[in-house]
Specification:
This protein is α+β, with helices and mostly antiparallel strands and 365 residues long. It has 8 helices and 19 strands. The longest helix has 18 residues. The structure holds adenosine-5'-triphosphate.
Length: 365
């Protein structure tokens, strides 16, 4: 059982850098929460503050009702798994996993049982005598996980644990960690800059930028109803298409198709930014666009479209110059240079943003 509350948490580093600003967050028992954001957004700092490895400048971190601000890392009942594994190279897998229990002077039999169980869960039983240097990257990361598991902590804290692994192994370990989380009934906080990891692993995603929480929500909420342009563009690959449009009678003109929602009624005669995911656009007959590139991913294709200005009397500026990317099924064929039109396929999920501050005009779930 472990619930975490972060109340008005602040971090100012020596030298004055304000790394985290007014962080408020509730993490429920057994939740898998992912902190995601670009490099330097403060996600590792936040995790390290929860672990007790970094001093808290302001606010409170509360674990199961107890303020832990001044409690030693070893007494917080949390276990951290690092990106670089942090294994002792001269020790066997067994001794690495048993390390914290030996320090606590646990009974030898108990240690044997706990390490044995963790090794079983992680598929490391046959490797307990090896040294870290005799293991693959994925196996080393499993040992690092094992070392955390044997401590039976209230909370697992993981700082980019997969970033040293190759793409295939990352994918494999991603599902391993999710399964592990489920089987241990633990509360897990996982830091990554990879939005795919965040989307696939998290029950709850916390998107950070510039030391400020941008949005907290389920993967679906954050993907479908981003709180602002930053979240919209950070989550999702390829990135969401953003197009500027003027509102007329609560609607915008999307290359001949009128689309709208109640939320933009108040924006009559003003400009809004419309966000459309690449899978929410359909390529149709027409000549508004020219295919500039087709990326074939095997299961699907990303079709890049440029505004077609050949033979047109209008000139285009800024926003209209942006490529539009459309995700299509692999069976559809488009050729570079082909003239096409586009349509919104699901008018229920349209994101509108205020062009001045980038905040969503939609209701946030
Ligand atoms: P990354 O994905 O690159 O690890 P991050 O989101 O985890 O990034 P942090 O390591 O939490 O970012 O750092 C947040 C900000 O605080 C960065 O701008 C960083 O330069 C700054 N920072 C980190 N440690 C210190 C320090 N000891 N003193 C001053 N500033 C620091």
């Amino acid at each position: 059982m472990a619930e975490l509350r972060l109340k008005n948490v602040e971090k100012v580093y020596k030298g004055g850098f304000h790394a985290l600003k007014n962080i408020n967050l509730e993490i429920n028992d057994r939740e898998f929460v992912v902190f995601v954001g670009p490099s330097g957004c403060g996600k590792s700092t936040l995790l390290r503050m929860i672990a007790g490895l970094e001093e808290i400048t302001g606010g409170e971190i509360i674990i199961d009702g107890k303020v832990v601000n001044d409690i030693d890392p070893k007494d917080r009942d949390v276990a951290m798994v690092f990106q670089n594994y942090a294994l002792y190279p001269h020790m066997s897998v067994y001794d690495n996993m048993a390390f914290s229990l030996n320090i606590k002077k646990e009974d030898k039999k108990v240690i044997e049982e706990k390490v044995g169980n963790a090794a079983e869960i992680l598929g490391l039983t046959s490797m307990l005598k090896r040294k870290p240097g005799q293991l693959s990257g994925g196996q080393r990361q499993r040992v690092a996980l094992g070392r955390a598991i044997v401590r039976n902590p209230k909370v697992f804290l993981m700082d980019e644990p997969l970033s040293n692994l190759d793409a295939k192994l990352r994918l494999h370990m991603r599902t391993e960690i999710s399964k592990l989380h489920n089987s241990l009934d633990s509360t897990t906080i996982y830091v990554t800059h990879d939005q795919t990891e965040a989307m696939t692993m998290g029950d709850k995603i916390v998107v950070l930028n510039g030391g400020v929480i941008q949005q907290i929500g389920s993967p679906d909420d954050v993907y479908d109803w981003p709180a602002n342009l930053f979240v919209a563009e950070f989550i999702g690959s390829p990135s969401i298409n953003i197009i500027e449009r003027g509102v007329v009678d609560g609607q915008v003109d999307f290359f001949g198709q009128k689309v709208g929602q109640d939320v933009i009624r108040d924006y009559n005669k003003k400009k809004v930014l419309v966000g459309l995911r690449p899978e929410n656009i359909r390529i149709v007959d027409g000549s508004d666009f020219v295919v500039s590139l087709v990326e074939n991913l095997g299961s699907e294709k990303y079709v890049h479209l440029e505004r077609n200005i050949s033979g047109k009397t209008f000139s285009i500026d800024g926003d209209e110059r942006k490529n539009i990317i459309v995700k299509v099924h692999n069976s559809l064929n488009f050729k570079r240079g082909q003239e096409v039109g586009i349509e919104v396929s699901n008018t229920e999920i349209l994101n509108f943003f205020d062009p001045d501050n980038g905040e969503t005009l939609n209701e946030i779930k």
